[in-house]
Amino acid sequence: MISKVYSAVNIGYDGNLVEVECDSNKGLPRFNIVGLADKAVNESKERVRGAMANSHFDFPNGHITVNLAPANLPKDGTHFDLPMAIGLLVISGQLLQKNVDGILFAGELSLDGKLRSTRGALSIAETARKNNIKTVIVPEGNAEQAALVKEISVIGAKNLIDVVLHLIGEKIIEPTPSPDLEIAVQKEVSVSISDIRGQESAKRALAIAAAGHHNILFTGPPGAGKTMLAKALTNLLPAPTYDELFEITKIHSIYGETSEIMRERPFRSPHHTASFVAIIGGGTKAMPGEVSLSHHGVLFLDEIPEYPRQSLEALRQPLEDHKVHISRAAGRVTYPANFMLVATKNPCPCGYLGDDSHECECTQQQILNYQKRISGPLMDRIDMVVEVSRVPQEELLRPKESDKNEDETLRQQIQKARKLQVERNKGKTNSALPNKTIVAKAKLTPKAENLLTTAADRLKLSARGYFKIIKVARTIADLNDSADITEREISEALQYRQQ
Hints:
Shape: elongated
Oligomer: single chain
Largest sheet: 5 strands, parallel
Number of strands: 18
């Protein structure tokens, strides 16, 4: 007798449907799993056997073969435990095939029969919807996340016994309702704008970057507040939309970082010793890297010249295409990588070049070598470069009343500007618009166009730099609630361009 149970496997960012076929024949007791299964899947044999025995189900006798089809697709993960157990219950007559038809199963079994959460539940549920499977049974810990997928019924079960009782109709488990995404999330804000003394021009630049999703680089001496400015950004960004929240949760679920819903935009800050694979993604299973884990959020690189040049140069493609392609001998996968790059750097190795209160000790050659760590093509992809000066000590010591409304005022301005962009650009921010589209959407006045042309000629701007100035100016106009881009917006955008 053969049973067929549906499950799924994550291959990169997308899921693939898998048929778990179970067969039992006469012969010596044996349990084989075929179909390009990795070690975690092969170890399912002992977990399934123990879970069935401790849940008071009979384990079938004879020569058992489990085939994970299609056989040429690599299978990994522990979520095949549940579909295997269900398939074995069918071939042993404890369940009927009609009880499991049209249902997708996924979940890891403990030896006592309880269901443990697994990674990739959202992608698995999405695979079910794409294949017109209307019901998904997953561990209770994954149910809320999987319920983000609309048009399917998600059943969250605690153990194997509950799954079987639900299938035979003796103890029906109610489907998990769609999660309420309007629930306010209490943010843990380590740094707010109101905590930063001075730096009004840098705060203004940060608001522009947040409103238009622009890449920004803060440069200045140590202790000037560059890192604080970057960390304050998390409190200014607007809440993610449903589609953005779905993609954020999906990528983090595939990575195995959470089994819950990600309700905030990610803020990733990898150490400068992080490997190329950790930042870009890859490995034997082609897992997502920091550029993908910061999708629809912020990738913060503190002291960017200290990162390996190979990793920095690899950022060029995702910064342009908003996706990263990982090619390995086993295949090629693509992950989304639409992140906002926020970086900081010192002007020289000692950090005090141009500082009025501290003399620089670096030689000219040391300064040149340090500046060359960031290539010209990468700098050209950074929309805004902001110089941050040291705050006078007397201002640091002067008592300051914390302005709690400063964050809220900036946040409201950013949300208003972002709403204008989304409505005008059909869901896209200004930074994400193609060059030919931004020209039609920009609405430059004749004087603004003349100023931009003159500046581009004198500064020898590249075509990319030329359009980035227009995009930044469009965001400034949105913050100023201006329909057209005037000389004022172009002038402000030009001052953020690296000379």
